[in-house]
Every structure is written in C-alpha cells, then in structure tokens.
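Structure first, sequence second, as always.
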C-alpha cells in the first residue's frame, strides 16, 4: 500500500508557511488536508484560490451559512477529516466552539431563520449520494 508523507510546518516552503502561520495561531494545528495540498506549491495555490473565492469573497450567503453547509455535508458524508478541516475554518471565521457544535447537531438544532434552515436542508438533500 502506498503512503504519502505529509509535511510538517518546518518542511513547507516559506510561501506556504506564511499561509499556515495564521491557521496555527488560531487553531493550534494544521489539518491533514492542508498538509496534503502543501506537498506541491501549484496544487496548494490552486486549492487556496478556490477556497478563498468560495469562503471569503462576499456573496449573498453569510460566512456562517457557507461554513454550516460545508460542516453539515461533511458530516452527512461521514468524512471526519473534512469535518475537522471545516471546524478549523469555522474557528478561523470567528464561529465559537458552541456554534460549531450546534451546527453539527443538525439543521433543526441551529439557531437561525427558517429560510436558512430550508437552504441547509436543501443543500444536504442535494449532496446525498444517489
């Protein structure tokens, strides 16, 4: 079976370390997905651009709702690694541990509007494997 050695912070190139530093400062760790894309600078930059565009560009959806969608779908798909990544992103976006846990309890546990709950239910339904 093949294995990929994931780089630690010290092993990453300086430009990726610069991106990793705020994550380490806010969350205390780098997730495996971050380490995986940090193996190659081109992969890292392409992935980072996509994530920055999706999460941080202003859209009609709030950061909280965007990250709630990501957390709920990651949980629905049973991907612990993705849930952990999105928990860290949510923390970086300013969501509290309590809010993150509220989201992970399911749509009906989230203190949000009925309109947002309908959107979240739709996203989960749309993401289900057929």
């Amino acid at each position: 079976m093949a294995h990929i050695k994931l780089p630690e912070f010290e092993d990453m190139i300086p430009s990726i370390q610069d991106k990793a530093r705020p994550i380490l400062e806010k969350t205390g760790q780098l997730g495996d997905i971050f380490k995986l894309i940090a193996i190659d600078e081109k992969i890292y930059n392409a992935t980072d651009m996509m994530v920055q565009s999706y999460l941080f560009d202003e859209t009609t959806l709030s950061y909280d709702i965007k990250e709630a969608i990501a957390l709920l779908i990651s949980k629905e798909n049973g991907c612990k690694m993705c849930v952990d990544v999105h928990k860290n992103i949510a923390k970086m976006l300013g969501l509290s541990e309590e809010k993150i846990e509220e989201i992970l309890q399911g749509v009906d546990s989230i203190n949000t509007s009925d309109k947002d709950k309908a959107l979240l239910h739709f996203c989960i339904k749309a993401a289900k494997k057929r």
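Margin note: Residues 60-130 form one domain.
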